[in-house]
């Protein structure tokens, strides 16, 4: 139970303040999302630990998160991500009139995980500052903030939808949010050829199927020879080697953050043979997938 009241819809929320008697809600069911919009007065504090990812965007005001022994200030248009099973405490400082935030609690689809590697602030917390140099020029930051706020408001609107389409549409908006953040996060784009970035994005989004050099070259609008030369020069390894590393890293994330069977994880990251997957995973991680998962569970307990 996270100590925040759930508000849905668009019913004059900016005029409501959270009261201590309202501070509870149930965690989302598997495959669903839970969305909140709250306006919290100065001096209010709360905290808890969830078994899900949480992403929040500060609409107005500010608050201080305390995560992993680090104080992290969240201000207007800051996007904060907290990982599952991480204790989170926040407090609205006295110098702030209030803190207004929309945040969503969810379990990511496997192919989202690559897009969620935002700048790390502490163990279990990541932040994307849409108004800072991490995003780029002022005009681009404005576009990023507008896109992210729109996605979060759309997730909130779909929460009131009575039909079965509610959850799929919410998940679509979460995916749009993550894709937009991935695009605008300049910390992962270190001045490389933008045509190569097209191939890197294509690789990350299609790990579950066979990918060929001609396909990657076509996506990048380059010849096969030019693509292979440019890829090795800027990334440092061949496309095949990079793809395997990416698949193993995605498998690590899924082993840590999901309860999916190892066979399903292998298929999700492009290994049709579970035994071959285990061999390649052991080569990269130094241990079997089963042992890797078990050690992660012991460390988080």
What does this structure look like?
- The protein is an alpha+beta fold and 301 residues long.
- The protein is built from nine helices and ten strands.
- It folds into two domains: 13-188, Regulatory protein AraC (Jelly Rolls, Sandwich), CATH 2.60.120.280; 194-300, Arc Repressor Mutant, subunit A (Orthogonal Bundle).
- It is 41% helix and 19% strand.
- Strands 1-8-3-6-10-9 form a six-stranded antiparallel sheet, with helices on one face.
- Helix 3 (194-205) packs across helix 4.
- Mean pLDDT is 81; it is low at 1-25 and 133-137.
- Top CATH class of the largest domain: Mainly Beta
What share of residues is helical? 40-55%
Structural class: alpha+beta
**Could you report the average pLDDT, rounded to the nearest whole number?**
81
The gyration radius over C-alpha positions equals 21 Å
| Helix-strand string | EEEEEEEEEEHHHHHHHHH
Terminal CA distance: 18 Å
Question: What is the CATH superfamily of the largest domain?
Answer: Regulatory protein AraC
The name of the CATH architecture of the largest domain is: Sandwich
């Amino acid at each position: 139970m996270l100590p925040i009241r759930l508000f849905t819809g668009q019913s004059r929320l900016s005029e409501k303040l959270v009261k201590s008697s309202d501070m509870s809600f149930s965690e989302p069911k598997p495959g669903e999302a839970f969305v909140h919009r709250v306006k919290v007065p100065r001096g209010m504090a709360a905290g808890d630990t969830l078994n899900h990812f949480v992403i929040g965007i500060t609409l107005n005001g500010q608050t201080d998160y305390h995560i992993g022994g680090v104080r992290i200030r969240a201000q207007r248009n800051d996007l904060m991500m907290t990982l599952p099973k991480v204790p989170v405490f926040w407090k609205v400082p006295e110098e702030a009139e209030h803190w207004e935030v929309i945040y969503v609690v969810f379990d990511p689809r496997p192919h989202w995980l690559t897009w969620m590697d935002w700048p790390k602030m502490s163990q279990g917390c990541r932040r994307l500052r849409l108004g800072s140099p991490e995003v780029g020029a002022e005009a681009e930051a404005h576009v990023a903030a507008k896109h992210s706020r729109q996605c979060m408001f759309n997730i909130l609107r779909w929460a009131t939808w009575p039909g079965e389409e509610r959850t799929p549409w919410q998940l679509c908006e979460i995916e749009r949010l993550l894709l937009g953040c991935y695009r605008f996060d300049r910390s992962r784009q270190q001045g490389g050829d933008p045509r190569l970035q097209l191939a890197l994005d294509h690789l990350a989004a299609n790990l579950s199927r066979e990918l060929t050099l001609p396909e990657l070259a076509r996506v990048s609008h380059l010849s096969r020879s030019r693509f292979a030369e440019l890829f090795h020069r800027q990334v440092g390894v061949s496309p095949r080697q990079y793809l395997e590393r990416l698949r193993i890293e995605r498998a690590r994330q899924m082993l840590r953050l999901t309860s999916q069977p190892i066979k399903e994880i292998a298929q999700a990251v492009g290994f049709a043979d579970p035994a071959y997957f285990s061999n390649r995973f052991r080569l990269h991680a130094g241990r079997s997938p089963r042992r890797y998962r078990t050690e992660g569970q012991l460390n988080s307990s």
